[in-house]
Amino acid sequence: MKFTVAIDGPAAAGKGTIARALAAQFGFGHLDTGLLYRATARRVMEGEEALSAALALQSADLRRDDLRSAEVGQVASRVAAMPKVRTALLDFQKNFARRDGGAVLDGRDIGTVICPDAEVKLFVTATDGVRAARRHAELSRKDAALTVAEVLADLRARDRRDAGRDTAPMSASAEALLLDTSELTIDEAIEMAGAAVIAKLPI
Ligand code: CDP
Ligand code: CDP
């Protein structure tokens, strides 16, 4: 069975949390596409050229330490604005999306570019303040000293770059269900996303 759930939205809106839960609930594969850009960024920070870095990615790159840091996130959003990098990562994501047994992908351009035919499309949002508070509460050791205001500035800079770039900008696909998680518990958000999947599952 081919069945794709595309989850997009700004930083720290809850995309990954929902994606992991849906994958577990329905037995689908899960790909956090942000990790591809973060792992590419990590290689670029070590001096590698961006396209070579993207082409050289191995699964071990996706398990490296500190991919979640704010610094790697900023470099990731710069690297992600380069068309050659996005092109290099396209086939892997498209193939994952159409794998047998179902797939959930979360990122910025899943419903618009990677899988425009996805059976379910969600655009997950939350207010800036809520997103900054959530990300602040889960900061990696490296970023532990950051204030909520600094986290907010970091997320906003990334969102602006991600929404403003020419190639595959972050945007809600016309068919996407908008899920504002600002006032939702994690369980409520997962429940609503799960209902959207169940409504589209083949019987
Ligand atoms: O993947 P994305 O950057 O969109 O966000 P995430 O890493 O899934 O979520 C950011 C943080 O918000 C995590 O610590 C979640 O536990 C928390 N959270 C949430 O995702 N949804 C809620 N309704 C409440 C909190
Ligand atoms: O977890 P968070 O939402 O903070 O970020 P992420 O999903 O790990 O993505 C890191 C960066 O990768 C984003 O700020 C985007 O610039 C880029 N990205 C992208 O351009 N396209 C995707 N499908 C996923 C991530």
Automatic annotation (TrEMBL):
Belongs to the cytidylate kinase family. Type 1 subfamily. InterPro entries: Cytidylate_kin, Cytidylate_kinase_dom, P-loop_NTPase. It catalyses: dCMP + ATP = dCDP + ADP; CMP + ATP = CDP + ADP. This is Cytidylate kinase. Keywords: ATP-binding, Cytoplasm, Kinase, Nucleotide-binding, Transferase. It is found in: Cytoplasm. It comes from Mangrovicoccus algicola. HAMAP family: Cytidyl_kinase_type1. It is an enzyme of class 2 (transferase). GO terms for cellular component: cytoplasm.
